[in-house]
UniProtKB/TrEMBL annotation:
InterPro entries attached to this UniProt entry: Cellulose_Degrad_GH3, Fn3-like, GH, Glyco_hydro_3_C, Glyco_hydro_3_C_sf, Glyco_hydro_3_N, Glyco_hydro_3_N_sf, Ig-like_fold
The family this protein is said to belong to: Belongs to the glycosyl hydrolase 3 family.
UniProt keywords, alphabetically: Glycosidase, Hydrolase, Signal
Protein's name in the database: beta-glucosidase
Domain Fibronectin type III-like: 658-727
Keyword Signal listed: yes
C-alpha cells in the first residue's frame, strides 16, 4: 500500500509543479507576492556584494549568511563559480519562501576569455563581432553560475579625460545605439533562461559620460534637447533590443541625483518607454544622496529612491534598514514596494530559477565551457578587427617577410596584465599573449626579434635608453609599444594630462635619432595625446586594450596577415585644451574658412580647431575609391525613406575591409543642427580590383531632431547627404530637399 501512496504523492507533486510551471509568470508572481511579508518583499530589493561571503569566516560573513537565510537578500554581486553560487543559493533556499537569489557580475569584456575593452571593439564597427564577443562572455559567465551582467555600458562620452570612456562605444549616438543593441542581443540571446546567456544591464542611466571636466562622479548639466538627442538614444536602443535590466548612475542631472530622478526613471524609462524590467542602483548611489546634499539621512535617501523608481538597492542597505519604517509611517506606499518586487520576481521566473535554482550552476558545464578552445580564436578575430591604423608612411607596414632583424622596444612590449585593462573578473593573465610573444611566434626564426624595455611606464628613469638605442641601431626596423598602464582607465581613473606617462615620448625621440624606421603600437583605454610621435613615426597602430589575444592580433596586423580595418569611435584631440571636441559640432555664426583663419572667428589663437585624428578615421593597407552616388529622389516627402547608392572599389593590392559612413546635415532648422551626423555605416570586404554597389535606405525618422515641447520632429528644407571614409574625409555628397 505504502508504495502506491508514495507513487501517488510523487505524481501529485509532479503534477502540481508542472501546473505551476505552466501557469503564466504573472500569475506565479502574484500568488507568491500574496504570501510575502513586508520584510520579505524588502529583502528582494536588497543586493549585497559577496566579496566577504567567499572568504574565510568573519562576522560580516555570518551576518550576510543570516540575512540570506532569512530572505533579506534578493541578489548578490561578485560571487562567481559553480561551487560558491551553489553554496550561497542553498542558503537562500533555507528561507521561508525559498526565493532564489540572482547572481550578478561586471562581465564587461569577457569572463574567462578576455576580449578587447568595449571602446576597442567599438573601433571595429563590426556588429557581428561585437555580438559574438558578448555571447562568449555570457556563455562563460552563465556556466559559472552568473545570471546577470552589469553591461552594456552605453554612456556617450565626448571627454577622454573621463577614464570610463574605455567602457563604452565612444562619442556617437548612432554608432553607440547600434552597439548597444548588438551587445544586449549578444548577452541575452533569443530568450532569457537559456544557460548560455545572461541578463543584460544597461548603464548608467543617465548621461554619466557628460561629467563636468571629465572628472568621474561629477555633476552633469545639460539641456533637455541634448539629453534626448545625444545621450538617451543608446538606452532606448538597448531597451528595444529587450534589455532585461537597467542601472542608474552616480551623477546628478541638472541638480537631481539620477537615483532620485523620477523624471529619468518613471517619466521616461517606465512611463514613455514602457519599460517593464527593473532598475538597480549603482553601488551605494542611494546612500550617496546624503553627501550630495540631496537627502538629510539614509531614511530620506531610501524614500526618494523608491519614489523615483529605483527598484533594487546595491550595497547601500538603505532599503533593508529604512523602507519598512517608511511604509509603516505612511511615507512610502506599499504599492511601490509591490511594483519593484514584481519586476524582480518576474526576471527570476523568466530565468527559470524557481523551477531549478541551480540550473546555471552545473559543474560539468562549467568545466566544458571553460575548456572551449574556440573562444580564443574568436577573441583573436575580434581583437584584429578593433585595431586602427593611424599612419603608414611609404608603406612601412606591413613588415615584409624579408626583414631580418626587428628591434622591439617599449614598456608595454611584454605586458600581459595591462592587456586586460580594468573590469576583468577572472582573467588568468598568464593566458594573455604579449606583443613580444605574438611577434616572436610570427617572425622567429626567419627574422631575429630583439627586445629592450627602454623605460618604465610611468617614472622618470632614462637609464634604459642607451641599450634601447643600441638595439635599434642594429635592426632593420623598430617596433615600439607604448601607452598608458592598463589600470589608468576605468572607474575613478580621470586624468588631466593625456600624454604618454613617464619618459616614453623621450624614449621615442632617442630611438628616432637613430634614423631607423619606427612603427609605434599605442595601447590605452582612451584617446591619448602624442603629437611628436604622430609627426615623426613612420607608422602608427592604435591597439587600445585588446585582451588575451592582443599579441596575436597585433602580429597579424603588423605582418599583413590581417589588413587593419578599424575606424576611431571617438575623436583624438591635439591637446586637452580642445576638450570637449567631437565631430558633430555646431557651425557657429563665425565658422573658420580654413585652419589659421582666426580673425574674429570661432577659433583658438594657439591651436587648430581640427583634431589630431577624426571620428571615423582609420587607414588600410589597400585603398578604396568611392564613385557614382545616386539618390532615389532629390525631393523627399515627409515620412518617405531615401534610398542611396554608390560604387566602392578596392583600388589597392590587398584584400581589405572599409567602413563606409553615411552622414547628413540638416542645413536650416528651428534648433541649429550639427555640421554632420552619422546616420548609417557598413563594413565591406573587397578583394583587389573588386567593386560593389553599396545601398543604404535612410529612414525618414533619421532626419528628425529632438525639440523640447514637441519631441522628435522633422522640418522641411535642404539637407546634405555625405558618404565618407571618415567624418573628415567626405568622398561623395549631394543635397536633397525634404518637403
Ligand atoms: C561600480 C560601477 C558600475 C558597476 C557596479 C558594480 O561602482 O559604477 O558600473 O557595475 O559598481 O560593480
Amino acid at each position: 500500500m505504502r508504495g502506491k501512496q508514495l507513487l501517488f504523492c510523487l505524481l501529485t507533486m509532479a503534477a502540481l509543479t508542472a501546473s505551476a510551471q505552466n501557469k503564466p509568470i504573472k500569475k506565479r508572481v502574484d500568488s507568491l507576492l500574496k504570501l510575502m511579508t513586508l520584510k520579505e518583499k524588502i529583502g528582494q530589493l536588497n543586493q549585497y556584494s559577496g566579496r566577504e561571503l567567499t572568504g574565510p569566516a568573519s562576522n560580516r560573513k555570518n551576518n550576510l549568511l543570516n540575512d540570506i537565510r532569512s530572505g533579506m537578500v534578493g541578489s548578490m554581486l561578485n560571487v562567481k563559480g559553480v561551487k560558491d553560487t551553489r553554496e550561497i543559493q542553498a542558503a537562500a533556499l533555507q528561507s521561508r519562501l525559498k526565493i532564489p537569489l540572482l547572481f550578478s557580475l561586471d562581465v564587461i569584456h569577457g569572463y574567462k576569455t578576455v576580449f578587447p575593452v568595449p571602446l576597442a571593439e567599438a573601433a571595429s564597427w563590426d556588429m557581428e563581432a561585437i555580438g559574438q564577443s558578448a555571447h562568449i562572455a555570457a556563455k562563460e559567465a552563465a556556466a559559472s553560475g552568473i545570471h546577470w551582467t552589469f553591461a552594456p555600458m552605453v554612456d556617450i562620452a565626448r571627454d577622454p579625460r573621463w577614464g570610463r570612456i574605455m567602457e563604452g562605444a565612444g562619442e556617437d549616438t548612432y554608432l553607440g545605439s547600434a552597439i548597444a543593441k548588438a551587445r544586449v542581443l549578444g548577452f541575452q540571446g533569443k530568450k532569457l533562461g537559456a544557460t548560455d546567456a545572461v541578463m543584460a544591464c544597461v548603464k548608467h542611466f543617465a548621461a554619466y559620460g557628460a561629467a563636468v571636466a571629465g572628472r568621474d562622479y561629477n555633476p552633469v548639466d545639460m539641456s533637455e534637447q541634448m539629453l534626448h538627442e545625444v545621450y538617451l538614444p543608446p538606452f532606448k536602443a538597448a531597451l528595444d533590443a529587450g534589455a532585461a535590466t537597467f542601472m542608474n548612475s552616480f551623477n546628478t542631472l541638472n541638480g537631481v541625483p539620477a537615483t532620485a530622478s523620477s523624471y529619468l526613471q518613471r517619466d521616461i524609462l517606465k512611463g514613455a518607454w514602457k519599460y517593464s524590467g527593473f532598475v538597480v542602483s549603482d553601488w551605494g548611489s542611494i546612500r550617496e544622496m546624503v553627501p550630495w546634499g540631496y537627502a538629510q539621512n539614509l531614511s530620506e535617501a531610501a524614500q526618494y529612491a523608491i519614489l523615483a523608481g529605483s527598484d533594487m538597492d546595491m550595497e547601500s542597505e538603505a532599503y533593508k534598514k529604512e523602507l519598512e519604517k517608511l511604509v509603516l509611517a505612511g511615507k512610502v506606499n506599499s504599492v511601490l514596494i509591490d511594483d519593484a518586487v514584481r519586476r524582480i520576481l518576474t526576471k527570476k521566473f523568466e530565468l527559470g530559477l524557481f523551477d531549478d535554482p541551480y540550473k546555471f550552476s552545473d559543474f560539468q558545464r562549467e568545466e566544458r565551457v571553460m575548456q572551449d578552445k574556440s573562444h580564443a580564436a574568436i577573441a583573436r578575430s575580434v581583437a584584429r578587427s578593433s585595431v586602427v591604423l593611424l599612419k603608414n608612411e611609404l608603406n612601412t607596414l606591413p613588415l615584409k617577410t624579408g626583414i631580418k632583424k626587428i628591434a622591439l622596444i617599449g614598456p608595454l612590449a611584454t605586458a600581459k596584465t595591462d592587456l586586460a585593462s580594468t573590469w576583468t573578473v577572472y582573467a588568468d593573465t598568464l593566458s594573455m599573449t604579449s606583443v613580444y610573444e605574438g611577434l616572436k611566434e610570427k617572425y622567429s626564426p626567419v627574422a631575429e626579434l630583439t627586445y629592450a624595455k627602454g623605460c618604465n611606464l610611468n617614472d622618470q628613469d632614462t637609464t634604459g635608453f642607451k641599450s634601447a638605442v643600441e638595439l635599434a641601431g642594429k635592426a632593420d626596423v623598430v617596433v615600439m609599444v607604448l601607452g598608458e598602464a592598463g589600470d589608468m582607465t576605468g572607474e575613478a581613473k580621470s586624468r588631466t594630462d593625456l600624454s604618454l606617462p613617464g619618459r616614453q615620448e623621450a624614449l621615442f625621440r632617442a630611438v628616432k635619432a637613430t634614423g631607423k624606421k619606427i612603427v609605434v603600437v599605442l595601447m590605452a583605454g582612451r584617446p591619448l595625446i602624442f603629437n611628436s610621435i604622430a609627426q615623426q613615426a613612420d607608422a602608427i597602430v592604435y591597439a587600445f586594450w585588446l585582451g588575451a589575444e592582443a599579441g596575436h592580433a597585433v602580429a597579424d596586423v603588423l605582418s599583413g596577415d590581417y589588413n587593419p580595418s578599424g575606424k576611431l569611435p571617438v575623436t583624438f584631440p591635439r591637446s586637452v585644451g580642445q576638450i570637449p571636441l567631437f565631430y558633430n559640432y555646431l557651425n557657429t555664426g563665425r565658422p573658420i574658412s580654413k585652419e589659421g583663419d582666426i580673425h574674429y572667428r570661432s577659433a583658438y589663437m594657439d591651436s587648430p580647431n581640427s583634431p589630431r585624428y577624426a571620428f571615423g578615421y582609420g587607414l588600410s593597407y589597400t585603398s578604396f575609391d568611392y564613385s557614382n552616388l545616386k539618390m532615389s529622389t532629390d525631393f523627399l516627402k515627409k515620412g518617405q525613406d531615401l534610398t542611396v547608392s554608390f560604387t566602392l572599389k578596392n583600388t589597392g593590392e590587398y584584400t581589405g575591409e572599409e567602413v563606409v559612413q553615411l552622414y547628413i546635415q540638416d542645413k536650416v532648422a528651428s534648433i541649429v543642427r550639427p555640421v554632420k551626423e552619422l546616420k548609417g555605416f557598413e563594413k565591406i570586404n573587397l578583394k583587389p580590383g573588386e567593386r560593389k554597389i553599396v545601398k543604404f535606405v535612410l529612414p525618414a525618422s533619421q532626419l528628425a531632431f529632438y525639440k523640447p515641447g514637441a519631441g522628435w520632429v522633422t522640418e522641411a528644407g535642404a539637407f546634405k547627404l555625405m558618404i565618407g571614409s571618415a567624418s573628415d574625409q567626405i568622398r561623395l555628397e549631394q543635397t536633397f530637399n525634404l518637403n
